[in-house]
Amino acid sequence: MNNKNLDHEILKLIEAHPEITEKDIASSLSVSEELVKTRIESFKDTRQKILIMGEGSSTPNIKTALEAENYNVVKFSGGSSALEAVKTERPDLVLLDTGLADIDSFKICEQLRSSSNYWWIPVMVLSERGGAKNWIKAFESGVDDYVTAPFNPVELRARVGMVLRRAQV
């Protein structure tokens, strides 16, 4: 059972039986009590979530820099099921690496913008390709910001914060 389905089943049990214990939930769902505790704990994380999609060489540094600002950062390494990752993770911001091997990053942004469920999620592009042609393509696909390599961690954190603040208005 994937985390999304497990979370859904846990929530159903808690809603139906508010006094249910983690042990009873684990028994009912045939999973470990530790897994139930971990999933319930994840419900309590109120930090803004950033979903990084891509395989760029600087992704670990970006993840570390954003976690230092107390963001909940989740890395997703493929593009083919990007919308499923957005649906499962419910991020406050998506960072797209234009180096995704299996899908055009700008297509992911276009899919998010055309979705009635995800159009509002801000999207930033992280790219090793600069230049007006790439920036224009990105902004035409609906991205909120475009950052080129090499990434300055301080600037990236400032840009992320600005995009998230703008999204809250």
UniProtKB/TrEMBL annotation:
Against PROSITE patterns, the record matches this protein to: RESPONSE_REGULATORY
Give GO BP annotations, semicolon-separated: regulation of DNA-templated transcription
Specify the Response regulatory domain's residue ranges. Answer: 48-164
Q: Tell me, what is one Gene Ontology molecular-function annotation carried by this entry?
A: transcription cis-regulatory region binding
Residues with the modification 4-aspartylphosphate, per the entry, are: 97
* Gene3D superfamilies documented for this protein: 3.40.50.2300
Quote the SMART domains the UniProt record gives. Answer: REC
Any idea what this protein is called?
Response regulator receiver
Which organism encodes this protein? Methanosarcina thermophila (strain ATCC 43570 / DSM 1825 / OCM 12 / VKM B-1830 / TM-1)
